[in-house]
């Protein structure tokens, strides 16, 4: 089945066809780094991490760019409150972002550009827009003429009245039209600023992504993505200014993920109901958080609850147990290739996984296929005779789809037993043989303290990490 994705701009499920065969140019809007990210932010980065991985599985060479907004009103205000510089504040929370994302298994982008390192590109774009009549300067500020392009609003599909209401426009007598938005902001006393043809100032939010995406990915992107909250005004304004700047379509496919709800309300800073990843990581396994963020179709809202995360942690144990059981049976399995029945079953599961992901990247259904594969593996393990090829085939399948694509299965140690653990297990077996149960129990407790769980099976003792 060929990949189809829902394009926000056309509001249709479309066949995915990048500009170049086997190459994808992908830009995902990154965080504004003035605080720790919350679980709603994390949904963007975890989901599009999976999109990137799946595209690579499909054979595409993906160039993945995710920016950092390291200068804006919130950064300036927070830095002033804390008595530090905007640069120091941004660097602190960029580092915190990577700590959170590394824990959640999110791979680094190919390029992580910072807004403050691309001021020249932004100023060049702004000047081009002025020269073309799409922008104008007023007392050191530069604004984009939103209605200069007659298709403004085509991404969010809003009427003119809705656009005006949604823009949350402050009264500004300098603007020709209330919908016009800032490309360059005149510096206030004491603010971070850069020299420009229009006086000292700093860039507006929207021009940052237009300049950075163009520099690294060209005039037209294959995929532009982010949270649904960015569709308007950020992505709408990006599209308008970029297409006016280059005269070309800005992005072929616009992908937006849904919100996370806290009870009946959307999670948002304005409501004060956000839950930060750095705090959740202290309470739950990061893999459980990743699972939660992939557990619903990306365009649907998902409701956060602590009970849901706890249930997910239990579900992850099924994955880990399956991997441990498959590895354990290797010790007594026969030499030989995978059985024909096993190959056919894994081909079926592969088809179901691909069908789920090809249908608008449905990670929820893909996770269901993982559980189906685990159930199938456990059923196979009940056979009295198994080949190493069959066991390896299941392990390879779980690694490819559960670990490499979804990032939910921890394949654990690839090589045999740790020598120290193996020695203790052997000593425990000897103690049990001479009925020294006190010593045997002491060894079990010693291993448990190291996070090693022992399980006595008909094939012998096996161990796994907690």
Automatic annotation (TrEMBL):
Keywords tagged on the record: Aminoacyl-tRNA synthetase, ATP-binding, Cytoplasm, Ligase, Metal-binding, Nucleotide-binding, Protein biosynthesis, Zinc
Amino acids binding Zn(2+): 29, 209, 234, 238
Main location: cytoplasm
Cellular localisation: Cytoplasm
Cofactor: Zn(2+)
HAMAP family: Cys_tRNA_synth
NCBIfam families: cysS (TIGR00435)
Protein name stated in the entry: Cysteine--tRNA ligase
Taxonomic source organism: Melghirimyces thermohalophilus
Gene encoding the protein: cysS
